[in-house]
Write a structure and sequence with these properties.
The complex is a heterodimer of chains A (472) and B (375).
Chain A lengths: L6 H5 L8 H6 L3 H13 L6 H14 L10 E2 L1 E2 L5 H24 L3 H4 L10 E4 H11 L3 H15 L6 H6 L2 H38 L1 H14 L2 H20 L3 H14 L5 H13 L3 H14 L4 H14 L2 H14 L4 H15 L3 H13 L1 H4 L11 H9 L4 H8 L2 H16 L6 H33 L2 H10 L1
Chain B lengths: L5 E8 L3 E7 L5 E7 L5 E8 L4 E9 L3 E5 L9 E6 L3 E6 L8 E4 L5 E7 L10 E6 L4 E4 L9 E4 L17 E7 L8 E6 L3 E6 L4 E7 L4 E6 L8 E6 L4 E10 L3 E7 L19 E7 L2 E9 L3 E8 L5 E3 L5 E3 L3 E9 L5 E6 L6 E6 L3 E7 L6
Antiparallel strand pairs in B: 1-30, 2-3, 3-4, 4-5, 6-7, 7-8, 8-9, 10-11, 11-12, 12-13, 14-15, 15-16, 16-17, 18-19, 19-20, 20-21, 22-23, 23-24, 24-27, 25-26, 28-29, 29-30
Classes of the chains: A mainly alpha (472), B mainly beta (375).
Chain lengths: 472, 375
Amino acid sequence: MEKSKTLLEKYQIPINHLDFAYVDKCQNAREMEKIVMILRSGEEGYFPDLTRCAEEKLKQLKPDSKLFRIEEQIRSSNVLDKQELKPIYDWTNDIKNKDSALNELKEESAELATDLPPVRKPCKIEIDKEESETQNAGQVPKPNAKPQLKSTNEERIKSTDYSKWDKYDPDEEILRMDLEEERSKEQAKIKLRKTETTTTKEEHIKCEKGAEEQRLQAQLKKLSQIEREQYAEKYRLRGNEYFKAKEYDNAIEEYTLAIVYDPAQAARAYNNRAVSYLKKKNYLAAIDDCEACLRLEPDNVKALLRLADANYGQGRRRESYGFYQRVLALEPNNISAKSAGRIASTVWRLAPAHATRMIIEELQSEKAAADNKPKTQAQPKPQPKQVQSEKPPKDYDLAELVKPNRVIKSKIACAAEALGGTLKTRNPVASAQKQQLQQMMQEVSTAQAELRLPQSNKSGNNNNKLLIQEIQ
Amino acid sequence: MDKPQLIEHLHESVNYTVYDTKWIPLSAKFVVLGCKPNSHGIMDIYELNEQKLEKVKTVEKKAAFKCGTFGASSLRNRHMAIGDFEGRLQVLDLEHPELAVYNVKAHTGIINCIDAIGGTQLECGAPEIVTGSRDGAIKVWDIRQGQAPVVDISPPSQMGDGINRSNLRRDCWAVAFGNTYNEEERIIAAGYDNGDLKLFDLRAMAVRWEATIKNGICGLEFDRRDIPMNKLAVTTLEGGLLVYDMRTQHPTKGFSCVEERNAGRSVGSNGVISGPKATVWTVRHVPQNRDIFLTGGGTGSIRLWQYEYPDRRVIEDADGNKEGVAGKLQMISAVTLSSQPVHSYDWHPDKLGLAVAGAFDQSVRVLITTKLNTL
């Protein structure tokens, strides 16, 4: 009886936790797993509803719990639709054609074999030798432990040998152990570096790739269409894998090879390379690839969408909008085109966001000259300028100007709004405007400090005076 | 159901023990290697038709066949390299299998495992075949070379007393090529019956790394052979499944890995996987998606796994050394295929989701996995 604990005891869960109310409010996934295991075991009785309830709760708390790993009996293919099996039948017929075509090519194979890389020079790797080497070098924990064992065996001091214990210096021993560890680490590092330096040699080989490219072209000519398709597909899939792993540079390389091998059917490779370029924010290259893809498949919706995205990224909004429209013409229900197209179109009709931003920059750098510059596009901007030029003559404003920056900033914004009335508070620009105003105010106050010092003195208190002097 | 589903398309019972199943590249045919009750080797070639399998050819030879591969053959001449129970390696032209293209007595014991590379990969070095055997040796073969291996990785010869050292020779259970991304680089990963995992660098001709896992290694495979090492999946007795991140090698800690101890666990009550542990015999990555792989287990189950990369694959430790970070494993799907271990499995290289599996219940199955492209 005693020998086997029940799960309840093993997990130390009180019996009253096996309850709907507790299960409902429990937030601990680990505990929930235990409760489910207890309930499933049936040791405490059979409660189908509670078990189901607990399982549902666990699903909420920890959807990937191992308790949900189930295995079913395999089902036969007649559960599948005819629709799902059809691609496989089609593929079977297709591959049989390729197969027989390949068999016809077989005769030539003897000649082809000549340009294989040379045979490796025969050699041996001896496992045993390597092991003895690692013992000296101390590589993995295992060898690390060995020398230590040895030394302790030799120098082991008997517990009764007091004279020796007197001589024993623990600090020294610790130091020695540390040094040993360090040395082994260094040696491991050197070993690793050795392998690394040899890999740099391959970089040199890579440099000679230009010459190799010609060889590749020569090799391409030897391959039959089937083989080229096959290789191109392989490279494209490898590109996809790199893309998934977010290694876009490698992906682009693989797609390029896929295109080289089978330019006639490279629509998908072009399309995928375009996305990779998009991810790299290389919009011009992406546009090129999309266009190449569209030349092969004029109605490729994905390519059109990407082309639109790339154009948008490059700042060609009008073109981008056009492409979104074309997508919608092909696929009226394409959601991403709809939303993106709407954004593109609205942005186009309003004053372009980035145009105003550019003006802000101008103002910052050369505020005086900028006064004349602002064009009709940036209507909201000139207003503060006018406010600024109006203000100085007014005495009452100046007193405020001399106050610390923080206060002034808000006041001026309010004043500008009151005066101009047209100053729209547009969200994306608002913060920039604030900063802008703040800076302008500083400029203005310095400029005015020279002119109106007496007045400001009159109205301002000591603090203000100080401020003005600082600015000067 | 948006999840991928494993479905049995066709089932063929045979009258011999199946040891390996392999698709012939760019065709609808596959090869079944096995051992007849009279211990003769048998090779059947089946062709996939819409609703049935058709046996195209049968070849019988004296020694039982253990394993085979098409890795070193080009698309034009699809020759199969086969290892048998007597340690012989032969390369057969499937059109004329009577006379081997290449035939060598490779090992003194049974050839447990075989892998090959360089046939279809361009600019990736010479086509080579690697064999691992019960005699403890791993040998690399180039069929242009003649009767000697190009690389011989043998344990020390048993000289001396031979009494205490008799069990020194480990049984090599699994080999795999990897890291073959240019003409020089090439790495062999090997797993032994005592759990030793070794990585041999064929460029430097040295042991690159070794580790010991708790249980004997039954299967291992790089996620891709022809790219710089990315991941290595290892399966063991007692249900272990380890996936190493092979991008970064730490000077002392080596490669980091994620371990799934219950990958081979059998089914308990209500289909929940909670039973006793069982061997994971084989691991095979999907040729079209390197982050998905399938394991075949001793309980006759096959399980589909997905590897998720961590946010950062490399971190620096306190000493400034780079250390790899392993990701996470997720089980996508699991089905019971047979009452006996499923020990051989081969995805079709050209068709996503199509596969052939061999089990010890003397049968071969063609499987379809749906919705793999959604992952």
